[in-house]
Write a structure and sequence with these properties.
alpha/beta; seven-stranded parallel beta sheet; 42% helix
Length: 423
Amino acid sequence: MNIDCYMTDLGQRARAASRAIASISRAAKNATLERIALAIQEQSSALQQANARDVDRARAHGRDEAFIDRLTLSDKVLTTMIESVRQVAALPDPIGEIIGIRTRPTGIQVGQMRVPLGVIGIIYESRPNVTIDSAALCLKSGNAVILRGGSEAIASNTALSMLISEVLHMSSLPRDAVQVVCTPDRAAVSKLITMTDYIDVIVPRGGKRLIQKLINEARIPMIKHLDGICHVYVDESANISKALEICDNAKTHRYATCNTMETLLIGWKIAPTILPMLGKIYRDKGVELRVDRDARIILTDAGIRPIVDATEADWHTEYLAPVLAIRVVDGIDAAINHINVYGSAHTDAIVTEHYDRAMQFLREVDSASVIVNASTRFADGFEYGLGTEIGISNDKLHARGPVGLEGLTSLKYIVLGHGEVRQ
């Protein structure tokens, strides 16, 4: 296969499809999304059979359980996919929305209209559900999309792309509005991220190595985050029962997600009370604890072992594994400083019953999602009511946090006149 020719052809067809998909009605979009949801439901067995081939191949190559978890299309994952597509269909259509109309002294009226970005290139690794989530969001927001999943999920993604293509054809919409790169050749990624004539935005979803490569090589703007170094700070005023549940869930609900807590910060006044309880929870669940000096003293006195001394590198690390760094801090100012120095501006939470400290945390923590009295695991497009997400951005331009429909649009100025001419 000539990769340059193949990818250029995909890009040309996506650009042509983007013009058609941008103008379709809300009713047509929603009907198409409902057909996709029904097709997933009706073809669930076939999708799981295709996925089983990917899972078997991954196990044969010695992939760990966290990787297998991300790759597997379980009944629960399929149900969530169906629900997320229907949630996207139920959301208001942002395209064509006019905002901020105001009348100028000259008589003209100036406002802005929300429009699609055009063609989105999405590069992701082992999560085949991203194929459906991305297709749903791009279709609803009037964008065409080129999807390049990882080679480890090629059977799953091929099956899903065929399903979407059939639905688009049934809906009298261009099949090229959603295209999946069918070659595992990595040269396809290198070509995709430089196709400035055809691609408007790249969205990378994957590991740090992949995203760093794209940061270094891409010539197209990206919506991305590099790390998910998420924190929970337990304030001295925290409700103990609430804090135990939140800190447990934030770490152990799932280990391999970008919104999982990687560093636990505890105020020194409450640490002797709550840290032994948390230590027992984590020990019983097999979580390795990497701790500072104060946390070591408290945990050792409570008989919690084994524990490991934290190094400077631990405060910078996204483990994506049953490993947790713990630091005892001297109050909320120290906690906020630690987060702003070591965090990745993804998601950070405080557990507190003190209103002023909660508001201080919300104001001063410079992250895309800042949470009071809830788990970091809620930092997700589905949980935020976006239907699903195309990714999470910790950048500050255009889109920040979970990126849903509005994040896949732009604004253009519109002017309504009555025959005015400039003097």
